[in-house]
User: Fold this.
Amino acid sequence: MPDRAASKVLTAWTERLEPLHTESSLAWWALNTDASPEHTDRLRRARAALEAACEDAEGYERIVRSLDEGVADPLVRRGLEVLARDLRRYRAPRDARLAIVELEASVNERYATTRGQVRGVVRGDNELVEILKRSDDVSLREEAWRASKAVGAVVADDVRALVRLRNEVARAVGFPDHYAFALAGQDVDPAWLDDFLERVDRATDAPFSAYKAALDARLAARFKTTPDALRPWHYEDPFFQEAPETGRPSFDRFFADRDVVSLTTRTYDALGLDIRPALANSDLLPRAGKCQHAFCSHIDRRGDVRVLCNNVPNERWMGTMLHEFGHAIYDLEIDRTLPWALRRPPHMSSTEAIAMLFGRLSKDGTWLTKVAGVPASEAEGLAALAAAAFREGMLVFARWVLVMTRFERALYRDPEQDLDTLWWDLVERYQRVRRPDGRRAPDWAAKIHVATAPVYYHSYLMGECTASQLARAIEKSTGGGLVGNGRAGAFLSRQFFRPGATRSWDEHLAQATGARLDPAAFLAEVGV
Assistant:
């Protein structure tokens, strides 16, 4: 009897939430592909309706009672556990939650529509990055960098207001702030995360310092200045979250005039993994009024998977396509006979791991020759070049994640502090990038994740470490790497994708690889 009653509770919540979740996802997709007041209002209404449905205190208590009474069926029990975790925030006051819905929709629209200006011309993110990558005109580079931060001033006050509201909701359900609440919702132990980040910090500090000193010497020579005079606009990425190409041949030459969609499809086809259902629903080219970033969304947990990109034929967007369709194939391959609540990855780091595993391929020598068709004359020395690019990229990225995670931890502890100064203190400490002289601006708010994907960034570093651990497991299980290895595709589908959220993220990883998450494999690949 307890199992039958528990199953009815799970079914009732599924029937209530599934259509509302789908409409909310569709509204969010519409806003990001065509930002407008109408789509902003649609998202507000959809999320308000979802909020109202989740407020059902009596229905929540039925979940709690069912779990307290004991549920023998593991899928029903796990489904109820996941639902209880997701619904906890709805025990907080409605006014604060609805205010978050309003602000998030408004902020999302402004991130999608705001563009900076360079010498009087409105420029999109792709154009700004191209200036920072190619131009030797330092004054033009500085203007492009400042333009990339323009959205920060537009949204900063509302992002700070969002932090206050999120903290209010978290405290209403028994947590000190939203940071602690979010980690609990992800089944991530704060002490474990602190130790994980500290371990990566200690291991990468000296190697990164050596890399950064050599990079700065190359940049100083390029721009005819001294290393001490370098500022953020001398680097290629507006946040220095990717390693500059300065001093090594560009990988962009391999993708000029190439069809990145075709290369992405070919990559997954060679593994026996079909991404075409997601391709059919995706939006992949840049245009005005569209979100300038990239993401994947599983609209209905029934196979309507969509990717948003802003492709141009270069290595950055080749890697992004491989990354985002890693998310997509994960969602497409999840067992759809599972309860609706479990038709998703167990943690963001789980799906990020797959995205990162594939995203790495754009700088992988084997993939460049076997899939991208780089001729044999170009292949000589490519493996060493690709390995160096990967190592540099991972060092830079790890230090960038430390900025984001430390900033968010401090942000939710005290959103009233001087965040502009805090941001640059962390950038200087972890990335060794000097702040612009006299700069007083909310550059932290220019990073969209701070506003729209809070307490997420640690998942990227966990994902990279998981990807390295998975790569070792694939090699051990199949005797080969990822590229063109059908057995690797089958391994990922069976061991990693199909189970969805039937286990906690750490149990899921241990089941697939034989060990819980450890940064050792990642650090070894980075060479530390």
Remarks:
- The chain has a mean pLDDT of 95.
- The first strand starts at residue 116 and ends at 118.
- Residues 241 and 397 are 5 Å apart (CA to CA).
